[in-house]
Amino acid sequence: xxxxxxxxxxxxxxxxxxxxxxxxxxxxxxxxxxxxxxxxxxxxxxxxxxxxxxxxxxxxxxxxxxxxxxxxxxxxxxxxxxxxxxxxxxxxxxxxxxxxxxxxxxxxxxxxxxxxxxxxxxxxxxxxxxxxxxxxxxxxxxxxxxxxxxxxxxxxxxxxxxxxxx
Length: 166
Fold this sequence. Notes:
alpha+beta; six-stranded mixed β-sheet; 27% helix
């Protein structure tokens, strides 16, 4: 009870010290829902090689990086990397599940985790190769807009991730 009274008095002191400014309550559940939706939309645009849509969640100042599930070197996710049509394979199926969002105490940084399952088709080879990974994304609130800073993918147990790019 003492903590609640202390918290209320702090809030009141801040609101009284700036009478023209009102404090906005942040709905954590809504932030989680929004970030989950953005994460899904971002990833769907990425696997579709749609840079125009993907780029709306990439900071022009910070950019974004990715560790792919094949163990390749850190890559910058830019238009060339996202729109790469010469990688030699494509997703036949890609489904995300089990999204979880973890927010920093100031609610300006979020880590999203999820699973991805699907099938990969090779241009010159096997079709419908099973794909099962887990992923994490780090999102930051940059001037009121959420941007993805980094993604990390790894194969799930007894599974494989994406193939090495040529």
